[in-house]
UniProtKB/TrEMBL annotation:
Keywords: Glycoprotein, Membrane, Repeat, Secreted, Signal, Transmembrane, Transmembrane helix. It comes from Anopheles coluzzii. SUPFAM superfamilies: Periplasmic binding protein-like II. Residues 1064-1099 are annotated as: Disordered. This is Ionotropic glutamate receptor C-terminal domain-containing protein. Gene3D superfamilies: 1.10.287.70, Periplasmic binding protein-like II. The keyword Glycoprotein applies. The keyword Glycoprotein applies. GO terms for cellular component: extracellular region. Residues 679-793 form the Neuron-derived neurotrophic factor first Fn(III) domain. It is found in: Secreted.
Length: 1099
């Protein structure tokens, strides 16, 4: 009705000549004008704030977020969905546009609420909030949490711009306000909460000092912020079944802590949910057991000398008594000197420096007596001096030093909860540890638990640095072999604003050597200064109590009383035996027993022997023998002939010696050098004809070798023993000081001559080798026997852990051509594969992937260039073993680089094309230049660097020319390489494939070209290298002659001449660029030549 009245009034007021009426309606808040204004506002803010054409330094793939809402609840729902993804980046840039026609007045209040929700709930500070105040205008707000003088850490909404119809009201001011840094260089008014776990020496017991606190002080001094340190004994924390975190991680998730520290090592599950700093220190873990104390003093009388020395003393005593008896037998001495028992007693008395009652009368025996006296005087003096030393400083008892001994002793073992994951794998030794591992409070690092270790109640897996920083250092013993070597990091939320600056400062500290300086100061202060202060604090009474005088006690005399008791018992036993042996019936029984024993021995030999020839060896050589031949098994019609021969020293005496040798086999000693895969084998000499025996060593992988003929048959030579003379054949095998095992045969033979040692190289880890030593008689052909046997197995090496997004360098030269890596697929990984990028630093390698000692894919062989390998059919949360084996023994390969990723791309590394080879365009080859082409990276912001190295003309076809490897391209000294020619870097995102014209080359020369792709974060990957050749003749006179250009001017000409891109770019005149005299002469010659051609054409 109101509209009709207004229309009638307008008709009445209009003149009669008007033909039409125009109706004007109110502006629609949801119309196309409002939508266009909102889109223009988003485009303007994106162009101004995102900087999409510039390089960014944000870590994750997703860097920018645009959210359009009409209510605060919509913002909450959108952020909940985004933050649940694995690629969510809290440090990304957010643009939130709010447009609600029903709400045009709550701009400041809603901006504060939205910015606070992003800051508190998701730790994001890089946020722009655009509030629509009408259909075409927006107020733009951003957060300012760290610029306040008194309210640092509290989000404050700051209006930075006004956008009307897609344009700033004041463009210069708005752009500057939008891009103001959210985190200032210095945060003097900000205080952050640092929650620490007591873990000396990183965090001491009172939380007043420690290595990590010193590092935090360096960070605090650099950025001028304050830190409140809270001390706790809680652990790092684990992920609970309900999705929450325990201990310190739970406190940080509840915003009660900003940073946590305390000797924490990297963990995949933690890195998926939290952020971490750069790794800056290392920690070493091993099992600790009680330190061995002094050995029992009653054993010292025997421990003074080695068993072989005591055996030598006994031998000298026995020989001296026999010589005494022999000399007295042929000289007119008293009857006492002709009794063997008296000679032994006299010799023993002289050895003990006691006067002998029976003195000799002849000069020969007197000289023997004088020699024995001087010998005994020296031995007694040495024994007494060593005895005094050992009584005052007794040796230590046996020290337990392996985990196998700890498990066998039954002592409970355990440690921290986060260390148990290292033993949950497929290795049998680690499974035994995992089954007995305890993570209760009684097995955590503390002084009370260390006291329990000293008492032998338990064994703890602890840090060597922690024990070294306590008073129990020296009272407990850490195993010689480290169990774990972990890196140390600090943990914080992913969106923590200071994390990028922390990592940059820590990287600079590591590069400048300050971290090493902190480590050296710690070792000096703990090991020297603390002990000096402890000694200065002792009083005189404490010093006397700490080093009491050695007093002779019953403990020292236990061995003396024991020897006296043993002597008395032996005296009684021998007395009874002598009394019994003098009786008549004992003598008769002994004669009858000896006779029956000989008869029984002959009958047993007759039954066991089936050969036609037989040797009988009775106890006595002289006497009457009865030969009985058992012919009951023969038919009655057949005849039986026997021939009896007597040979006292025949060959059979030698051939039967191996059976006698079994009663005391030769001992074999094995010394392992595991890092070099070298084994030294030593053995005792043969007891038969020691002066004419030679030795051969057989090393087998399948079984033991019982005879020398069996070993020769399984070796590479395979000679028939029945057709050759073994001594002559072995004599042709020259003895070597070192012998490398041949992997193609089962048995390797190494003859040493008369030496009793041999160095063996080339042994593989986790392979059992059977070592058999054979003795060969040099004067009797084909006479050999087994002297001794043993087996050798090199312990396995612990694999290096691979971290996602980290390039790990593995060494092959120190591990015998093998390098092992360990990778655990993250539990939250949604893929059933992971990728390995393998870069051999020269040479050729092969790769195998195993799970539970079984291959999960075919081996990848002959990898000699950077290559990406995809391992499929893997399961999240499981560990896999990657084995890299050197395939070429003649190459100089000693290192490899390995990167791993459970995603499609490698974190921080450029994406490489499927074909990474470089191709020389032969039709474009010229005498001073050549053109190469390659496929570019799928990433947009990638820099390519081309390295050119010249090959000496006399060494084109020699393989040992020393050229740089793929791993040396990022070195600063690569430009100082003697074969270095030039280098050029450029951004090539316009064309694919890419091509490059390499100028300033010499005619008829070979060059090696490397190309590397560098990501925006500075990480690089190389392409497969290529060798190019220049043309021998210069058909185009416009090219630079060989005397000028780069060869004459050096590095300065690189900037002047440069590289030429062949992808549609115009080639510059090199003569003008270099201003070379030869080039000018070439130009003048070309001008005269062109004028001559023109004249001829005119004619």
């Amino acid at each position: 009705m109101f509209v009709l009245l207004v229309g009638a009034l307008l008709l009445a007021l209009l003149p009669s000549s008007v033909d039409g009426i125009v109706y004007v309606r109110i502006r629609n808040e949801r119309g196309p004008t409002a939508a266009r204004a909102g889109i223009q506002c988003l485009e303007l803010l994106s162009h101004t704030y995102f900087h999409m054409r510039e390089t960014t330094q944000i870590e994750n793939i997703i860097d920018y977020y645009v959210i359009v809402i009409d209510s605060f609840e919509g913002l909450q729902r959108a952020l909940d969905r985004i933050s649940a993804t694995a690629a969510f980046n809290p440090r990304g840039k957010f643009v939130v546009l709010y447009n609600n026609p029903n709400d045009r007045d709550s701009n400041a209040r809603l901006a504060n609420r939205a910015l606070g929700h992003l800051f508190v709930g998701h730790h994001s500070v890089n946020v722009l909030f655009a509030f629509a105040i009408d259909a075409t205008s927006y107020h733009v707000y951003t957060g300012d949490p760290y610029h306040g003088a008194t309210d640092c850490g509290q989000m404050k909404a700051l209006k930075v711009a006004t956008v009307v119809n897609g344009s700033f009201a004041s463009r210069a001011l708005s752009t500057a306000m939008i891009n103001i840094p959210k985190v200032p260089p210095e945060l003097e008014s900000c205080t952050f909460l640092l929650c620490t776990r007591v873990a000396p020496p990183f965090i001491d017991l009172d939380c007043s000092r420690g290595l990590e606190l010193q590092i935090m002080d360096l960070l605090r001094e650099s950025m001028k912020f304050k830190v409140n340190v809270s001390c706790s004994t809680m652990d790092r924390g684990e992920l609970e079944p309900d999705g929450s975190w325990s201990d310190l991680l739970g406190l940080m998730r509840a915003d009660e802590c900003d940073i946590i520290a305390g000797g924490f090592s990297p963990d995949f599950d933690v890195h998926d949910a939290f952020g971490s700093t750069t790794l800056y220190l290392q920690d070493y873990y091993t099992w600790f057991v009680p330190a061995a104390g002094p050995d029992a003093r009653w054993k010292l009388l025997v421990y003074i000398f080695e068993p072989t020395t005591w055996e030598a003393f006994a031998g000298v005593l026995f020989v001296s008594a026999l010589v005494w008896r022999l000399v007295a037998h042929y000289l007119p001495e008293l009857a006492a000197h002709r009794e063997l028992s008296m000679c032994f007693l006299n010799t023993w008395s002289v050895f003990l420096c006691i006067s002998a009652n029976n003195r000799p009368e002849c000069n020969a025996l007197r000289l023997l007596f004088m020699g024995l006296t001087l010998y005994a005087l020296n031995v007694t003096t040495i024994y007494t001096s060593i005895l005094i030393t050992m009584l005052t400083n007794p040796p230590l008892a046996y020290q337990m030093d392996t985990i196998e001994e700890i498990l066998a002793s039954g002592v409970p073992i355990g440690g921290r909860l986060d260390s148990e994951d290292w033993f949950i794998n497929d290795f049998a030794d680690d499974r035994l540890v995992s089954e007995q591992y305890n993570a209760t409070s009684e097995f955590q690092p503390s002084l009370d638990n260390l006291q329990a270790v000293v008492e032998g109640k338990r064994s703890l897996l602890m840090s060597r640095l922690y024990v070294r920083n306590t008073k129990y250092n020296g009272l407990v013993h850490g195993l010689s072999r480290d169990v774990l070597v972990t890196q140390i990091e600090m943990i914080m939320e992913k969106g923590f604003p200071l994390l990028p600056k922390f990592n940059r400062i820590l990287s600079n500290l590591i590069d400048m050597g300050i971290m090493q300086k902190l480590w050296s100061d710690f070792l000096y202060n703990v090991t020297i200064l603390d002990r000096i202060r402890a000694h200065r604090a002792l009083s005189e009474a404490d010093i006397i109590a700490a080093s009491p005088e050695v007093v002779l006690t019953l403990d020292h005399l236990q061995s003396a009383f024991a020897l006296y008791g043993i002597g008395m018992c032996l005296c009684v036993v021998v007395f009874l035996l002598e009394v019994l042996s003098k009786t008549r019936w004992i003598g008769k029984g002994r004669v009858v027993l000896e006779k029956r024993w000989d008869e029984l021995l002959v009958r047993l030999q007759l039954k066991e022997r089936t050969a036609r020839e037989m040797t009988i060896r009775p106890r006595k050589m002289r006497g009457l023998y009865q030969v009985v031949v058992d012919a009951t098994t023969l038919p009655s019609s057949s005849a039986c002939t026997c021939r009896l021969g007597y040979n006292r020293k025949g060959a059979e005496e030698f051939r039967s010696w191996p059976f006698r040798n079994l009663s005391a086999p030769a001992r074999i000693k094995v010394q392992q050098q595991r890092r070099r895969y070298v084994v030294m084998i030593k053995w005792e000499k043969s007891k038969l004809d020691i002066h004419v025996m030679n030795y051969c060593l057989a090393v087998s992988t399948g079984r033991r070798q019982r005879t020398l003929c069996q070993a020769l048959g399984n070796s590479i030579h395979r000679p028939p023993c029945d057709t050759i003379a073994v001594n002559d054949y072995l004599h042709r095998l020259a003895p070597w000081e070192e012998r490398k095992l041949d992997g193609k045969v089962e048995t390797t033979i190494a003859c040493t001559g008369t030496r009793t040692r041999q160095l063996i190289r080339g042994m593989k880890p986790n392979v059992t080798y059977y070592v058999d030593v054979f003795a060969i008689h040099s004067q009797h052909n084909n006479l050999s026997f087994l002297l001794g046997s043993t087996q050798v197995q090199l312990n396995r090496t612990r694999p290096t852990q691979l971290l996602e997004g980290k390039i790990v360098v593995g060494k092959l030269s120190t591990l015998g051509g093998i390098s092992l890596f360990n990778f655990k697929v993250p539990k939250r990984s949604t893929n059933n594969f992971f990728k390995l990028h393998l870069t051999p630093c020269g040479g050729t390698v092969s790769l195998e992937v195993l799970k539970k000692k079984r291959r999960i894919m075919e081996p990848v062989r002959d990898v000699y260039y950077p290559r990406t390998i995809t391992v499929r059919n893997v399961r999240p949360g499981e560990r896999y073993l990657i084995r890299v084996i050197e395939a070429d023994d003649t190459s100089r390969l000693n290192r490899i680089q390995v990167a791993v990723s459970s995603r499609e791309d490698f974190l921080d590394l450029p994406r490489m094309p499927h074909n990474t080879s470089i191709t020389e365009l032969v039709p474009l080859r010229k005498c001073h230049s050549s053109t190469i082409a390659w496929f570019g990276s799928p990433d947009k912001d990638v820099t390519y660097c081309v390295y050119v190295f010249k090959l000496p003309k006399t060494q084109y076809y020699i393989s040992n020319v020393k050229m740089p490897t793929y791993c040396e391209l990022e070195s600063r000294d690569v430009c100082n390489h003697p074969q270095f020619h030039n280098k050029h870097c450029f951004n090539g995102n316009e064309f694919n494939p890419l091509s490059l014209d390499i100028p300033n080359l010499l005619p008829e020369h070979y060059y090696t070209v490397f190309v590397t792709a560098i990501s925006a974060r500075g990480r690089s990957l190389p392409y497969k290298s290529v060798r190019i050749k220049t043309a021998p003749y210069c058909l185009d006179s416009n090219q630079i002659p060989s005397g000028g250009g780069l060869g004459a001017t050096g590095k300065g000409s690189i900037k002047t001449i440069g590289f030429r891109k062949a992808a549609g770019q115009k080639r510059r005149n090199t003569a003008i660029g270099t201003k070379n005299a030869l080039a000018e002469r070439g130009t003048s010659k070309r001008s005269r030549k062109q004028r001559g051609q023109t004249t001829s054409r005119n004619v």
